[in-house]
Amino acid sequence: MSKFVSPLRRFGLIWLGIAAFAATGCTDSRGGEIPYDVSNFGPPDKPVTNGPGANYRIAPMDTLTVRVFGMPDLTGEYQVDLLGTLSMPLIGDVAATDLTPAELDQVLTKKYGEKYLENPDVSVGVKESAGRIVTVDGAVKKGGAFPAPGPLTLMQAVALAGGADAETANMHRVAIFRTVNGQRQAAAFDLLSIQHGESPDPPVYSGDIVIVDGSRIKATQKKFFQTFPLFAIFRPF
Q1: Whole-model pTM above 0.70?
Q2: Residue 213 belongs to some domain of the structure
Q3: What Pfam families does its record include (predicted)?
């Protein structure tokens, strides 16, 4: 039985910093704490692409195959959310980021064995690495995770999500979240200026998260963003 948790379902829990981006300023202008015109917005850390080998470290948005012997209701495909959390039946959320499949196997075995199963037999595999996707959400028509085998531009990434929502999007504020030197960093861009040829169209890489600001961002998502530790912000010019 498939237990795949779609990116859209998980986005209610994983908006990583939008309060700093969208909580200040007007809804149709630039603003917020994430800077524009950054000087060091380079490529992200190279994603680990060695597949489900013994040394592979699980990353946010990876799709995992979890098998619990004799328990078809627990067996299936599950997606790690952007906070690195795996949501499992009965035991709830489990921290998965930076664990190997074998280590996560041990964690799940222990948790299921504590209350629910006697001597559970659990196996964990990596079906798909998130290093090959770009996540686009916010005020777009169809947010989610999209294949990105090579670099894209910001406009192309937004187009993958069906484009910005004409009624709710703030085209002056689009953020890219990226991991550089092991830290989550962010920079803001004015999509209208890019469309008009006034600003360059920046590259978007596998593993990036693109958020389009808008007037209908849920209060719960803003509140969650306020708790996200934005360790470093790209320096402006």
Answers
A1: no
A2: yes
A3: Poly_export (PF02563), SLBB_2 (PF22461)
